[in-house]
Write a structure and sequence with these properties.
With about 70 residues, the chain is of the alpha+beta class. About 40% of the residues lie in helices and about 15% in strands. A three-stranded antiparallel sheet has the order 1-3-2.
Length: about 70
């Protein structure tokens, strides 16, 4: 699995890019993507994740201690 740096990522992430960036498995990526309040845009049947909003969401969840247990190691 290739490690992706935040600056190297496209502005809108696919689920695969999201899981690679966060270094999590597919199940955890889908769990996160379906979590209420997680930022995404619909492109037909696909979800795309604005990377800046994803980073802000993660930072906010970590700061408030609300990140799911399975994702706390990120």
């Amino acid at each position: 699995m290739k490690n992706l740096r935040f600056d190297d990522l496209p502005d809108y992430l696919t689920i695969n890019e999201l899981k690679q960036y966060l270094r999590i498995g597919a199940n955890r990526a889908y769990e996160l993507a379906n979590r209420k309040g997680f930022p995404y845009l619909r492109n037909g049947n696909r979800k795309l994740f604005p990377k800046a909003q994803v980073k802000e969401w993660l930072d906010r969840e970590v700061e408030q201690g609300r990140l799911p247990k399975k994702l706390r190691a990120i």
